[in-house]
Amino acid sequence: MKAIGFKTSLLINEAESFILFETAKPTPTGHDILVKVQAAAVNPVDYKVRKNSLKDQIAEEPKVIGWDAAGIVEAVGEEVTLFKKGDYVYYAGDFTRAGGANQEYQLVDERIVGFAPVKISLEQAAAMPLTVLTAYEMLFDRFRLSKEKDAGKSLLIIGGAGGVGSVAIQIAKKLLGLTVIATASRPDSVAWCKQQGADLVVNHRNLEQELNANGYTEIDFIVDFVDLNQYWETIIKVIKPQGQIGSISDPKEPVDLRQLKRKSLSFHWELMFTRPMYHTPDMIAQHHILTNIAKLLDDGTITSTLTTTLQGFTVENLKTAHEMLESGKTIGKVVIKY
């Protein structure tokens, strides 16, 4: 089968930042299903791994990455009970497992796979798993929010136009009834956040001032999808006493958690790969989340955040997708149709 990977960490514009090669089609065992990949999205985690995982070394075999995909089940392991050959599925995969979605066939544990939505394209479906799981787990599993007790409360989303921010706006608004404030600065990203359902969009460059100017001196919940170091001091100022803060970013400098004490604040990290990485007892929760979200995508409650589709499983398209993500200006999701 065809696969695209890299043997060393290079800048994306270098000739061998990605290489096309042939490898054996794997055979599923245990809880694994073998998926014929038909579409795969690219996320910031992809280019971060490409740039850093093989620095100053050359691997014998190319490293294949990719953590968002949709396709059709080709075969199943002997312990599989959730899926059968011919089922259409979508998933984000396992960060620690070799053999990502940038290949024609991929092994993935059934417990982190959902039935794909049927009323949208597989490209639209492939755009969703990683970001949906991240946003859903942050709001429901980490913050433990519910519509019954939290509807109407305020949520600030730092990085509203990105992949996670886009779907977090929708989940917060449609499923939890929160008042959603998102950050964006360019006219196109502001418009995108409003399209996703944000009640208010503020410029991240003047965050505290714009919040205050719009009557928000205290925010119930804040999630950071960009850079915790950059916004930490502002977050501490504007968060409501006994509020909750969450982040998915990778701060380069330590953050001072002692600043949480005065307001009795809670802080949460979210990594949607935790369940598959550690095979947690509730690992199958990701199957249920994705399958439920598929129904919401089919009935239009949630809409796909796909904005760019690249046609063809090629080195050139993978490089283009990485370039787009590395620019930091991407709105929504970029998907490659195989």
UniProtKB/TrEMBL annotation:
Domain Enoyl reductase (ER): 13-336
Keyword Oxidoreductase part of the UniProt annotation: yes
Domain of life: Bacteria
Location in or out of the cell: Cytoplasm
Keyword NADP applies: yes
Matches recorded under CDD domains: AL_MDR
Gene3D superfamilies: Medium-chain alcohol dehydrogenases, catalytic domain, NAD(P)-binding Rossmann-like Domain
Alphabetized GO MF terms: oxidoreductase activity; RNA binding; zinc ion binding
Alphabetical list of PROSITE patterns matching this protein: QOR_ZETA_CRYSTAL
InterPro entries in alphabetical order: ADH-like_N, ADH_Zn_typ-1, ER, GroES-like_sf, NAD(P)-bd_dom_sf, Quin_OxRdtase/zeta-crystal_CS, Zinc-ADH_QOR/CCCR
Keyword terms of this UniProt record: Cytoplasm, Metal-binding, NADP, Oxidoreductase, RNA-binding, Zinc
GO annotations of cellular component type: cytoplasm
Cited PANTHER family: QUINONE OXIDOREDUCTASE
Classification via NCBIfam families: adh_fam_1
Subunit relationships: Homotetramer.
Family: Belongs to the zinc-containing alcohol dehydrogenase family. Quinone oxidoreductase subfamily.
Protein name: Zinc-type alcohol dehydrogenase-like protein
Organism, scientific name: Chitinophaga jiangningensis
